[in-house]
Task: inverse folding
């Protein structure tokens, strides 16, 4: 394993290439790719990579990029692509199709604000738009976690018990365009970690039509099967992490990471790079003797309800940092957590909308939120932080 | 204007009192000077095309309140935001359908689509061919720099064979579109091509196109020195302009089948097609009049009556029928 300094996007491209190359003993790799800021380097790295068995096709749109991945996956290849923001929005029809075809495609979502008005900075509204698309969703906080999670995502998605596509999110610019040192896996390790991609319903000359027309009860069964597959994700993920530790000698975060929650009175929840800033704030307050903790949200779909309920421990105040917004409701993570805490009237749950459109979520802002949450007697509507007058 | 430099005496760049003696750029009335400086790289060709379009608008004397500019995404997509005209910066590839809606809703407008090759014929290629097929009444100015510029030099549907791009690091092996022929074969009623070097001809060509109707397609070859030239070791913007000087050939009425562009090959320019045909709106109106007779009510030129918020919301229901809304600025305040 090599220690390498590079950007999030370069690492994402490198690891997708490693995963694709690891399938050279089977049907190789297929990627349909279309550029969008801030995802572009991923596509360029993949185009530069010489696959033993595989093709990266620069197509004319994101819609076509996902269509190529679907075709490639149905042909039996390991398929993957990357996009952002409005690119994901344009891809949506085929994003749903990929899941409904039960294809284990991996998509890197480089979080960027949806436009118009046009804005290229990070905001999780783009990937959370895909909440109901039947994709697994992982949110990563650092370059290392991005690298590791991409490999875990392939392993879980391709597992026979799951067979659903997986999205791995990284913050645009904050991760995609900054450099960090990472333990970059070797091809040989990835070859050991990822078994050959075997999509059981791939086209193989048996005269099978995929897709087709169904009646309501058949569709209902199809959706039920997807739900069953989602419910099997936690156990498959746990196995994938065990195996990861054996091969790479380190264990990435699982569905979530509960930190200092065992005796915490106040907990904040955050995903992506916000979790790193939050961790510093928690550590500082802990050093001062304050009973605060955090939950770093990683797996969003399926949402790890049981793990979350366990993780909050004795805390009676939970705040959510949402760098996303569902107009007419509130933060999307907050919505999930509110549903998870149903029946727990002893817990005060408060939503904070922060860093929308890529605004900085600073340690000072998080301190302010900790103080606000500790002083609250009851929950209010989602609080908009830093809305200019 | 409030962004001038007081020390240099360049404040008040807008139309101001004569004694202030502001020196105003000739196209300042057409451009949002408060948005300057623009984002385009030094020696990029897009600014030249904007200048030519602004000059053409001025010379044709069209009412600027009746001109709208619609752009997609990309470097050229910024044009809609820089021009001091109604318009919008739409989603990627969709400038033509947005513009179609605008034209159908306000038939009196000169609707101009101003966007790049990746946007209009890459991701938005379907809309391009269908608008040409319908002879939709739009002027489409396509700035072709042979590459996706804003995202970093990826392969475009116009990238010449063998040219290097960031997604074709070993050279492009996909055949590019011959856009003039694509537009002509789909039914565009006006097709022309110029380069950024042909400033006078381009201005004349845009004037010519503004004064016509139907689907008018003007392709402008523009240098991208930051990406296309750098990836292909073609030198600077100056070298590209010199290349246009040495290799562009004006051939009005050329057979569009023969005007495809190879890598560092000759660039045939000129007005290739000028074939006025009934536009989409004319075809539609004529067809429905024939079928529906008096029951058919075409959209009035200014788009119909919008109730004034102060008028108790009870407008004369017949008002949209008698053309009363066709005052120069329409009935809205």
Result:
């Amino acid at each position: 394993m090599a220690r390498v300094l590079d950007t999030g996007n370069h690492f994402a491209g490198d690891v997708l290439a490693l995963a694709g190359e690891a399938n050279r003993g089977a049907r190789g790799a297929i990627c349909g790719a279309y550029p969008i800021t801030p995802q572009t380097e991923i596509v360029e790295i993949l185009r530069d990579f010489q696959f033993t068995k595989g093709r990266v096709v620069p197509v004319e749109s994101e819609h076509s990029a996902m269509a190529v991945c679907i075709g490639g996956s149905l042909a039996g290849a390991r398929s993957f692509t990357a996009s952002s923001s409005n690119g994901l929005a344009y891809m949506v029809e085929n994003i749903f199709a990929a899941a409904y075809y039960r294809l284990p495609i991996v998509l890197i979502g480089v979080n960027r604000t949806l436009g118009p008005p046009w804005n290229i900075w990070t905001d999780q509204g783009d990937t959370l738009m895909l909440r109901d698309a039947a994709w697994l969703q992982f949110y990563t906080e650092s370059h290392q976690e991005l690298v590791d999670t991409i490999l875990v995502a392939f392993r879980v998605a391709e597992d026979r018990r799951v067979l659903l596509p997986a999205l791995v999110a990284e913050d645009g610019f904050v991760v995609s365009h900054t450099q960090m040192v990472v333990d970059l896996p070797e091809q040989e390790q990835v070859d050991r970690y990822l078994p050959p991609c075997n999509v059981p319903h791939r086209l193989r000359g048996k005269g099978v039509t995929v897709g087709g027309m169904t009646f309501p009860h058949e569709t209902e069964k199809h959706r039920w099967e997807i739900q069953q597959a989602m419910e099997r994700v936690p156990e498959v993920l746990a196995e994938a992490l065990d195996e990861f530790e054996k091969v790479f000698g380190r264990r990435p975060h699982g569905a979530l990471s509960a930190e200092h929650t065992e005796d915490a009175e106040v907990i904040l929840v955050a995903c992506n790079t916000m979790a790193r800033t939050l961790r510093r704030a928690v550590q500082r307050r802990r050093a001062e003797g304050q009973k605060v903790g955090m939950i770093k949200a990683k797996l969003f779909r399926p949402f790890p309800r049981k793990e979350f309920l366990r993780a909050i421990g004795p805390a009676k105040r939970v705040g959510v940092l949402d760098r996303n917004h569902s107009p007419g409701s509130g933060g999307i993570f907050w919505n999930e957590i509110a549903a998870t805490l149903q029946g727990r009237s002893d817990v005060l749950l408060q939503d904070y909308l922060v860093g929308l459109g890529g605004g900085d979520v600073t340690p000072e802002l998080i301190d302010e939120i900790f103080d606000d949450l500790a002083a609250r007697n009851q929950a209010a509507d989602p609080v908009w932080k830093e809305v200019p007058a | 204007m409030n962004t001038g430099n007081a020390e240099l005496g360049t404040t008040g760049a807008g139309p101001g009192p004569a004694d202030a003696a502001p020196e105003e750029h000739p196209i300042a009335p057409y451009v949002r000077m408060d948005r300057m400086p623009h984002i385009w790289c030094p020696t990029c060709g897009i600014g030249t095309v904007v200048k030519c379009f602004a000059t053409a608008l001025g010379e044709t004397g069209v009412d600027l309140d009746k001109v709208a500019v619609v752009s997609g995404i990309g470097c050229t997509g910024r044009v809609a935001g820089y021009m001091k005209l109604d318009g919008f910066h739409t989603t990627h590839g969709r400038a033509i359908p947005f513009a179609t809606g605008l034209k159908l809703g306000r038939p009196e407008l000169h609707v101009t689509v101003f966007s790049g090759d990746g946007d209009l014929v890459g991701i938005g290629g379907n809309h391009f061919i269908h608008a040409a097929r319908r002879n939709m009444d739009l002027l489409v100015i396509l700035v072709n720099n042979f590459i996706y510029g804003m995202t970093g030099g990826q392969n475009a549907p116009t990238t010449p064979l063998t040219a290097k791009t960031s997604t074709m690091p070993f050279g492009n092996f996909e055949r590019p579109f011959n856009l003039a022929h694509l537009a002509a074969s789909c039914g565009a009623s006006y097709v022309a091509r110029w380069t950024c070097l042909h400033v006078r001809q381009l201005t004349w060509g845009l004037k010519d196109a503004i004064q016509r109707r139907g689907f008018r397609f003007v392709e402008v070859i523009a240098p991208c020195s930051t990406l296309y030239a750098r990836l292909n070791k073609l030198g600077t913007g100056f070298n590209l302009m010199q290349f246009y000087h040495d290799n562009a050939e004006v051939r009005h009425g050329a057979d569009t089948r023969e005007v495809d562009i190879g890598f560092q090959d000759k660039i045939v320019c000129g007005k290739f097609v000028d074939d006025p045909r009934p536009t989409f709106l004319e075809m539609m109106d004529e067809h429905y009049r024939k079928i529906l007779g008096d029951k058919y009510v075409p959209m009035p030129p200014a788009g119909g009556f919008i109730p004034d918020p102060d008028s108790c919301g009870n407008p004369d229901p017949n008002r949209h029928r008698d053309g009363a809304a066709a005052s120069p600025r329409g009935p809205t305040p």
Observations:
- Residues 17 and 238 of chain B are 38 Å apart (CA to CA).
- Chain B has ten helices and eight strands.
- The longest strand of chain B covers residues 267-274.
